[in-house]
């Protein structure tokens, strides 16, 4: 019996050490660097504590009942009397789960509404507006007030609210900066909003958490928090040294691909706002490699940005005809 207890304690200690060592560097959500992230972390910690309490109580009662009502030599022939249930017990084990759900729901709803507003203490500051456009597989950041644009990195001033206005040029993605805020989806012809504040200067990783094809895993960006002075100097440097982007360059950039960092002294907002319900569709389905040798069906899209001269549908139909001929006719089974 003693050996079993020693073995159990040893195994528990080893598992705890392994789990804690694994969390040291990777659990970014438990090291928040801003008020929005802190509210999310507090909710996570509360949920974990409540679930641990429930788990301890349930397993404690389970162990107690198994031990108390185990078979012993003095009750081998004991047969308990027939019972028809207990109304009191049934009410208790129905009410308890309801109370647990309520205990989780109230702080969750409060947090959801709280993080959709400018954090407390920053209401009097004018937020910096940054338009975020996702595309396969890159992130585009437009600063309308400053008239500049970056790709795959975004600079922000510390201790100032940031108002991210999120949309997508094509497929749906999920915008997430674990150390600073929660995640929000980006969708074409729609706009979502995300507020955050960075407490201190530093570099933080942002990523896409919504699977959207082969390039999904590499769709990351850097968030660089700077002092207001350094941020203003960076903006001035970009205006003076960065090249201007053309419409042709922007449309090429939206094609499915991975890009490095890019910086421009103008924004694509002068040509297109992807959150506008009446904007063109900036998708290129014929450029995706599906990995099984068959390009798939490409449907005519009258709102596609390539339909500038009305000839795009004809070229697409011609390409489909060539694909069908080269693959031996109709492949409706794919």
TrEMBL record:
Compartment(s) of residence: Cell membrane
Residues making up the signal peptide according to the UniProt record: none
Domain Cytochrome oxidase subunit II copper A binding span(s) in chain numbering: 125-237
Location (main, coarse): membrane
Record-annotated membrane-spanning stretches: 46-67, 88-106
Residue ranges occupied by any Cytochrome oxidase subunit II transmembrane region profile domain in the UniProt entry: 21-119
Region listing for Disordered, in residue ranges: 293-334
GO cellular component terms, A-Z: plasma membrane
Pfam families: COX2_TM
EC number: 1.10.3.-
Family: Belongs to the cytochrome c oxidase subunit 2 family.
The protein, known as: Quinol oxidase subunit 2
Organism: Mesobacillus subterraneus
């Amino acid at each position: 019996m003693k050996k079993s207890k020693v073995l159990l304690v040893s195994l528990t200690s080893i598992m705890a050490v392994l789990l804690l060592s694994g969390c040291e560097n990777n659990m970014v959500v438990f090291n928040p660097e801003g008020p929005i992230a802190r509210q999310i972390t507090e909710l996570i910690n509360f949920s974990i504590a409540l679930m641990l309490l429930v788990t301890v109580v349930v397993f404690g009662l389970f162990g107690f009942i198994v031990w108390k009502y185990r078979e012993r030599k003095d009750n081998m022939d004991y047969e308990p009397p027939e019972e028809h249930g207990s109304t009191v017990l049934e009410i208790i084990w129905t009410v308890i789960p309801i109370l647990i759900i309520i205990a989780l729901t109230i702080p969750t709803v409060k947090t959801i509404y709280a993080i959709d507003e400018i954090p407390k203490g920053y209401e009097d500051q004018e937020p910096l507006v940054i338009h975020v456009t996702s595309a396969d597989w890159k992130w585009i950041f437009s600063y309308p007030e400053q008239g500049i644009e970056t790709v795959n990195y975004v600079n922000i001033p510390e201790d100032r609210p940031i108002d991210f206005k999120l949309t997508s040029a094509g497929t749906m993605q999920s915008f997430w900066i674990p150390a600073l805020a929660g995640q929000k989806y980006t969708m074409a012809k729609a706009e979502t909003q995300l507020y955050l504040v960075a407490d201190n200067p530093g570099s933080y990783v942002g990523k896409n958490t919504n699977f959207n094809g082969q390039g999904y895993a590499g769709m990351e960006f850097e968030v660089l928090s700077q002092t207001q002075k350094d941020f203003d100097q960076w903006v001035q440097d970009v205006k003076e040294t960065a090249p201007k982007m053309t419409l042709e360059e922007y449309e090429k950039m939206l094609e499915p691909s991975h890009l490095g960092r890019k910086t421009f002294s103008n924004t694509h907002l002068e040509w297109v706002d992807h959150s506008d319900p009446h904007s063109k569709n900036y998708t290129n389905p014929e450029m995706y490699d599906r990995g099984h040798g068959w390009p798939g069906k490409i449907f005519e899209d009258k709102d596609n940005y390539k339909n500038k001269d009305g000839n795009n549908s004809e070229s697409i139909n011609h390409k489909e005809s060539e694909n069908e001929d080269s693959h031996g006719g109709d492949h409706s089974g794919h």
